[in-house]
Amino acid sequence: MAQTLKIVIPMAGLGTRMRPHTWSKPKPLIGVAGKTSLDHLLDSFDSVPETMDVEYVFIVSPNLGEEQIPAYMKVHHPHLKVHYVLQTVMRGQSDALFLARQYLRGPMLMVYSDTLIEADLSRLADESLDGIAWVKSVPDPRRFGVAEVDANNVIQRLIEKPDSMENNLALVGCYYFRSGEALIAAIQEQFRRDVQLKGEFFLADAVNILLEGKSQIRVQPVSVWLDTGTIAATLETNRYLLEHGRENSAAHLGADVEIIRPVFIHPSAKVTTSKIGPHVSIGADCVISDSKIVNSILENGVSVESAALDHSLIGRQVSILGRGAQEPTASLNLGDNCSVNL
Questions:
Q1: Which is the most buried residue in 163, 209, 233, 287, by most CB within 10 A?
Q2: Of the candidates 129, 11, 2, which has an alpha carbon nearest to the alpha carbon of residue 60?
C-alpha cells in the first residue's frame, strides 16, 4: 500500500513586507518568472517518490487567503488533493500546525510559502531518521535560525538568531518529520511550557522539544535557497529563475521589439517599439508600447506606455503612462488596479 505524505504549507501571514500587493491578494499568488510563487513551490515537489501519495494541507488566512487560494487551486491545479485549514489569529508556526493536527498523521513535509529551494526529495520514503531540516551555509547567520549538529550531521539543537558567527547552517524553512503525531505532541508540550516569543509559538522550539525526547533529525544542505517574502527578494528570485530555465523565447513579438534575455513574456502580451530585458517577466494580457523595461515583474493586465522602468514590481491591471523610454528610469512598487502618470 502506498504511503501518504502530507505536504503542509503555512500561508496565513498578512504579507506586510509585500505591501501594497497583499492588500488585494495573498502573497503566494504574486507573480514571479511567469508563474505565481505558489506554482513554483508546487513544482519543487516533483521529485517526491512515486511510491508516496501526496496530499497538501494549506493553512490560510481569513478573507483573501480563504477566498482566493482554494479558487486558484481549483482552476490551476484541480488534480491535487488539498485540505484547507483557517488560522484566524496569528499565533505563530506551531499554532498553525496544531490547527491542522487532524491531517498530520504519518510522514509530513512542512515548507513555508515564501521559501523556494532546489532539493532532491526522491529518497524520503527510505529515510531512517525521525526528520530532516534543510539548511544552507550563509556568511552571516545571526539573522537566521541555525542548526547545531554533531559529527554525523544530526541536529543537537536549533538556535534562533545566534550571537556568534561560528555556526552558519541557516534553516531555510523546509522540514521533514517521519511522524506528524510526534510533532503535534511536541507542540502540545511547547504550549504547556508556554515557550513563545511575543505571543508567537515558533516551530524551532517544538523541534527542540522533539530533540529532548531523543528524536534524531539530520540536516540536508541545499545549494539554492530563494525567497519571495520581500519586494527585493522577489525581484532577485525572478532574476535567478529566468537565468535557470524559466524564460521563454518571446518569439511572438515583432521586429520593433528588442529583447535582452533572459525574459518571460506571456504569449498573450502585446509589446511594440520597446526594449525589454534582461530579467523581466511580463504577464498575460499586458500591453507595452514605446517603453524600456529592465529587472522587473509586470503581472497580468498591465499597460505601460512611454515609460522606462527598472527594479519594479507592478501588480495586476495597472496603467502606467510615462514621458518617454529615454527618460531616467523609475523604480515602482504598485499594487493591483493602480494608475500612474509619471
A1: 209
A2: 11
Question: From residue 284, how far is each of 161, 266, 301, 302, 321 by CA, in Å?
Answer: 41, 5, 6, 9, 19
Could you give the CA distance from residue 215 to residue 153 in angstroms, rounded to a whole number? 14
Whether 289 contacts 304, CB under 8 Å = yes
- How do residues 46-100 score in pLDDT, each as one tens digit? 999 988 999 999 999 999 999 999 999 999 999 999 999 999 998 999 999 999 9
- Per-residue cell: 217: 533529525
Does the pTM of the predicted model rise above 0.85?
yes
- Model confidence pLDDT, tens digit, residues 268-309: 999 999 999 999 999 999 999 999 999 999 999 999 999 999
Number of Cβ within 10 Å of residue 224's Cβ equals 12
* 112, 13 Cβ separation under 8 angstroms: no
Write down all domains in the chain, each with its CATH number in brackets.
Answer: 3-227 (3.90.550.10), 248-341 (2.160.10.10)
